[in-house]
Amino acid sequence: MACRIDEGQQWLLNCLSAALDSKHDVRIFAEAALRQASLKPGFGAALAKVAASRELPFGLRQIFFFYASSSFKLHGALRCLALLSADMDDSMVLKLVPALFPSLHRIISSPQLYDISVRAKALSLVYSCTSMLGGMSGVYKTETRSLMSSMIKPWMKQFSLILRNPIQSEDPDDWSIKMEVLKCLNKFAQNIPSLTEAEFTVIAGPLWQTFISSLKVYEQLAINGNEDPFEGRYDSDGAEKTLESFVFQIFELLLTIAGSSKLVKVIENNLKELAYYTIAFLQMTQQQILAWSMDVNQYVADEDDNVYNCRASGALLLEEIVGMSGAEGVTAVIDAVKRRFSESQKEKAAGSTMWWRIREATLFALASLAEPLLKAQRAGLTREIGPLIEEFSAEDYGINEYPFLSARVFASIARYFSVISPGFLQTCLYSAVRALATEVFNAWPPPVKVGACRAVSQILPESQCAMIRPHLMSIFASLVDLLNQASDETLRLVLETLRAAVKAGAEIAASIEPIVSPVILNLWAANVSDPFISIVAIKLLDAIKDSPGCIYPLVTRVLPYVVPVLVEPRQQPEGLVAGSLDLVSMLLKVAPGDVIKAIYDVCFGSVVRLVLVTDDRGEMQNATECLAAMIAGAKQDILAWGTDSGFTMRSLLDVASRLLDPNLESSGSLFVGSYVLQLIVHLSAQMSPHIPDLAAALVRRMQTCQIAGLRSSLILVFARLVHMSVPDVNQFINLLLTLPAEGYENAFACVMSEWAKQQVEIQGASQIKVTTTALALLLSARHAELWKINVQGQLIKSNAGIITRSKAKLVPDQRTIPLPAKIRALLADMLIKIQEQTGAGDEQHDEDSDSDPIGAFDPLNEINMASYLVDSIIKFAQADRPLFDHLSQNLTQPQQKAILMVLNR
User: Fold this and answer.
1) DSSP code for 139
2) Helix (H), strand (E) at residue 900
3) Which residues does the UniProt record annotate as the domain Importin-9 central HEAT repeats (predicted)?
C-alpha cells in the first residue's frame, strides 16, 4: 500500500531532492524540514526511496544522524542507509564505518529508548557494512583490520547481551533481532576470524543458550505443532522472519565456526552435546508430514534435492563435526545417535505416539553421513557401523503405521549395504520387495514404497546374484505396476529402480522384455518433452538392449515408434523428433551389423533430410549424433547397403557441408566434429579427394563459431588429419598454407593460433592423447612456417609495481612467444601431469564406447602417451640440439625439470 504524505512531509521530500541535486549543505534543508514536517509511519520509506534514487554526497549522512538522534521514528533513516550502503565504493565504506558504527552501537545498546524493530534494522546495517569490509579485506587488509579491531569488543558484548535470554515461543520479534545478531556474528567469523577469536568466548555461552532454547521452541511449534503460527512473516524489506529461517541462521553460524581453524575450539569441547541436540532438529515437522503425506512427489523431490530446511542444514553440521575432528568427531556423532535411539525406545515403551520421529531423525542423520562414516571405519577411526545400523533398523522396516520411519529404514540400509551382514540384507531386500508387491499396494503407504525403491535401486547393483534371483520376477512385476501409478518425481525414481533391476537380472531380462519395453516406450513418448523422465527412460531401454537376447526384440519394438516420426517430422509434437533420434542413436551404439543395417534401411534417408532442412538446433544435434553412430557402427558397409554407393557418399558430404556452413548457428553444428571424424576414420579412401575442401570448410566454421566445445571438436579433427599425414606431416602443413583464413596470413596460422589457446580445454583421455601426440608430430617436422606464428605464452610479470588500467593500456601484454616454444611448453605440461599421476599411482583411463565411439576401436588409443612424448623429445634433441636448447629457454622451471628428467634417463 502506498503511504500517504501530508504537505509538510512533501515539502521535506522536495527539500531533500533539491539538496541532493545541488549538493549544498544538506543539514540546512534537513533542519528546516524537520521543524516543519509532521513525520508519520511510512514516511521513512518514502524518504529512503528519494535518497536511493539519486547520487549520494557523503555529507548526506548528516541528515540521517540528525534524523536518528531526534525523537522521530528513525526506521526510515536506517533503511535509507541500508539501501545506499550497497552502492558505496571502498573508500566511502572506510569513511562511513567509523562515523556510523558508534551511532548504530548507541541505538542497539539502548533498548529503553528504541524498540526491537529499530534495533534489528540497525543490526542489519552492521551486517551490510561488515559484508562489504569482508569483500575489501584482500586489498585493504591493514585498513579493515585496524578499523574493526577497536570495535570488535563492544560489539561482541552487545551480541552477548541480546543472545543471553532464552528464545520465547510467543515473541517472534525477539527472534528477528537475535537473527540479525547471528548474521553479524557469521560475517565477523568469516571476514575477521583472527580478531573474532579473542572475543568469541564472551559469546559462547549465550550462543549455546540460544541454540538449546530454540530447539524447545522449534519442537513446540514446528515439530509437534500443526503449523508455525508465524509462518509467512516478513520484515519491511521482504526478508523472511519465520522460525525456520531463524534456526537455519543458527546452523549457518555453527557451520562457519566448525569450519574455521581459529574458532572451532569454541565447540571442540562440546561436540557430543552439539551432535545430540542437532539430531533433534532433524525431526520431521508436522507441516512436512502433512505435505509429504498428501504429495509423495514432494517428499521425493525434497529428499533428493536437499532443499532449504533445518534437516539439510543440521545434516551438514553433523558432517562437519565428523570431518573436522577425526576420531573424536566420529565418536561424538555415534554416541549422539545411540542416545537418541535409546530415548526413542523409552518413548515407545511408555506409549508415546511421537517416538518414531526422533528415531527417523537418527536414521536420517546416519544415512546423510554414510560416506564420511564408512570412510572413517576404513581408516580405523570407529568400530563396525553395520551392526549399529542393523540394531537401529531391525524393528522398524515394514511398519505401516509409521510409513516415514519405514521409508527411512529402507533408505538407510541401502546407504550402508556394504557393511551389513548378508542375512540381514536379504531380509531387508525381501521386505522391500514385499512393500513394492502389487497385491499389497493398498496396505503400504506411498512413502514406504519410495523407501523400498531406494533400497532396491541401491542394493541390487552390488548384490550377489544368488541372493536376489528368487525375488527378481516379483521385483519386475511390482515396479512395472508402480509405473502405471507413479507421476513426476516418483516416476523417475521407479524408472531408476527398474533400470537397476534390469542390470542385476540380465540373465532373465529376455523373459521380461516383452512386458517392460512397451510400458517404457509409452512412458517415454508421453514424457518426451521432460528431460528428467525421458533421459532415464532411454537409459532404461539401453540397459534392456545390452541384456542378452534383448536387442532384436527391442529394435522391432522401437522402430515402428520412430520411423513415422522421422518421415513426417513437421507433424509431430514438440520434442518428439529429437527424442526419436536419441532412441535411434541408443540402438546403434555397440549394435550388431544386421541391427545397424535394419536401422539404416528405414532411417538413413529421413535423418539426412532432417539435417539438411531443419532449423531446430536440438533436432540437428541429435540427427548429427545419429549419423555419426551409424557410420561408426557400419564403417565401409554403409556404402554397400544403399542401391547407389555414390548417392550415399554424396548424402554424407552434403550433411558435412550443411553442418560446416559458417553462417549456421554454432549450437546447430555442435557435434559436427564427431561426425567428420567418423567420415575421415572409417571412410578415409572416399574422403581423401575431399580433404582440401573439408579443411577449408573446417577453418571457416572455426572462425565463426561461438561455442568453445565446438572449437575443441574441430581442433580434434585437425589433429586427426595430422596423424593421417604421417610419415610426411609437412603435407598437412603445406595444405593449410594454401588455404585462406580471414585475418590471418593463411589457414595454418589461424588453426595453430586457436589450437595453442584451446589445447588446455580439450576434454577426454583419448581426445587429449590424439591432440597432444599430433602437436608432438608438428613440432618434430621443424617446418619453417612454425616460427612465423606467434601465440600466447606465459604471463611475464612486470617489476613496475601495481599495473593500473591506464598502465596496462600503455604497456602491452608481454605474452607472445613463437609457436614451437608454446608447443614445447604444452608437451612439458603433459609430461608433468603424467609424472604426477605415476607418482600418485593413478592410471589414465579412456572413456567407454558410449562417449567416444571411435576410441574403443582406434589404433591411436593404443599409444602410450608417456613413451610417445619421451621418444619424441629425445629424437628432437638428437636431431637439432641447438634448436632444442633454444626452445627450452621459454619454459618455466617445472617444465625444464620435466624435460631434463627425460634427457637424463
Assistant:
1) T
2) helix 893-903
3) 271-511
Phi-psi region of 813 (alpha: psi -120 to 50; beta: other; left: phi over 0): beta
172 near 230, Cβ under 8 Å?
yes
pLDDT exceeds 70 at position 12: no
Rg from Cα positions in the chain: 34
How wide is the angle at C-alpha 417 spanned by C-alphas 415 and 422, nearest 5°? 165
Answer yes or no: is 138 within a domain.
Answer: no
CB atoms within 10 A of CB 181: 28
Whether 774 contacts 723, CB under 8 Å: yes
**How far is the first Cα of the chain from the last one, in angstroms, to the nearest whole number?**
81
Residue 745 lies in a domain: no
CB-neighbour burial class of residue 125 (10 A; exposed 0-12, middle 13-18, buried 19+): buried
Asked if residue 49 belongs to a domain, the reply is yes
Q: How confident is the model at residue 71 (pLDDT cuts 50, 70, 90)?
A: very low
Q: How confident is the model at residue 396, as a pLDDT?
A: 77
Task: Please check whether residue 676 is in contact with residue 718, taking contact to mean a CB–CB distance below 8 angstroms.
Answer: no
728-753 mean pLDDT = 96
Least confident of 32-36, 122-126, 180-184, 792-796: 32-36
- Average pLDDT (419-432) is 86
Q: Is residue 33 part of a domain?
A: yes
How far apart are the C-alpha atoms of 634 and 853, rounded to whole Å? 12
- Rounded to whole angstroms, how far apart are CA atoms 831 and 824? 11
Q: CA-CA distance, 450 to 432, in Å (whole number)?
A: 10
Please report, for residues 32, 68, 139, 533, the alpha-carbon distance to residue 575 in angstroms, rounded to integers and kept in the order given.
67, 60, 51, 13
Query: How many domains would you assign to the chain?
Result: 1
- Average pLDDT score over residue span 550-562: 95
Print the domain residue range for 63.
7-68
Phi, psi dihedrals of residue 484, rounded to the nearest 5°: -75, -15
